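Hey, sorry to bother you again with one of my protein questions. A protein chain has come my way and I'm curious about its shape. It would help a lot if you went through both lines with me. I owe you a coffee for this, so here goes:
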Amino acid sequence: MIKILVGFILRKLPRTLLQRISKPFFYIISIFYRGNKVSCPICGSQFSTFFPYGRETRENALCTNCLSLERHRFLYLYMRDVKRIFNKKMNILHIAPEACLTKKFKNNPNFQYVTADLYSPLADVKMDIHNIPFGDNHFDLVLCNHVLEHVEDDILALKEIRRVLKKNGFGIVMIPFYNPVPETTLQDKSIVSSKDREKYYGQSDHLRKYGNDFKNRFESSGLHIDVIKPEKFLKSSEIIKYGIIKSDMIISVSK
């Protein structure tokens, strides 16, 4: 029953709204998830399991304290343990900021941190990703997660990310994949209704369904692409402990 309810709510309400109104609800829910089998590396909370989440509801997904999902915890661990950014002076652009991560970044005295989005109330700057309002070679790090599937021209957006990145900077891009994953990215301008986009792209506000050609597609922007999977730096026990999806991937981009 709870899976059906979660899926229904997520289809009807945007995540930014849910982030604002759901904190008291999840505070109460947390009482029923007490335990120490899983741990959120972002906020440090421990639970018997993470809360189910997703339109196609996934078990062991949502931290009921900071509202992180699997991909946020994976991304955070990569930045903390592989890139080791938190003790470095960095100029950071966070596109479509996730609430579970913004506090970590804003409270870090080493960071000059800007959040940006066209619609999100969490953003400092109102920004169209097709025309990023910052100069060339400006940022050490650009975060852009689960955004490119929503924009009209994902390659133009990546070219803009390339432009504002410093020579030795890097970006982190994450995109959703829906089974069955097509060999070639599906993008059809005749698919315009919310119902059809939900059917073909996996979500009513998506403009494409990414396929196995995503690396070649993204490289056409002039960026170098490196794909990182969880097992590259996490032990199997850590993947379970932090509630990471084994098939998830981080797409690291650089000039």
DSSP finds nine helices and eleven strands in the chain. Residues 1-11 have pLDDT under 50 and may be disordered. The longest strand covers residues 165-174. The chain has two domains: 2-68, 71-232+245-254.
